[in-house]
C-alpha cells in the first residue's frame, strides 16, 4: 500500500496517527495491520486490527485474547509499552 511505502519503523507513526481524525486513523491502523506479518508479529497486528475496528469483531477479539495469553506466558505486561499508547513492543 502506498500509504506505508518506505516506512521502516511504524512506532513514530503511532503518535501522529492517534492525533488524526477518527476516519483517517482507522484507515492507517487498517493499513498497518495489513502490512504486519501475522506470523512474525501477531501481537502488533492484533493491536492495529483492534484500533481499526468500527464495531465488535469476534476474529479481532480472538487475536487480542491470544496476544494477552502470549504476553502472560512470557511474563510480560498486558498494557502497551509505547509512550503514545502504541502497540506492544
Q: Would you write up a description of this structure?
A:
With 89 residues, this protein is mainly α. It has a domain of 60 residues. Helices cover 55% and strands 0% of the residues. The chain has four helices and no strands. The chain is globular, with a radius of gyration of 13 Å. The two termini are 23 Å apart.
Reading the helices and strands in chain order gives HHHH
Low-confidence stretches: 5-10
Mean pLDDT: 76
Largest sheet: none
Helix-strand layout with pairing:
Elements: H1 11-18, H2 22-35, H3 42-52, H4 58-73
Helix pairs in contact: 2-3, 3-4
Describe the structure concisely for a colleague:
By secondary structure, the chain is mainly alpha-helical.
Q: Keyphrases for this structure?
A:
single chain; mainly alpha; 89 residues
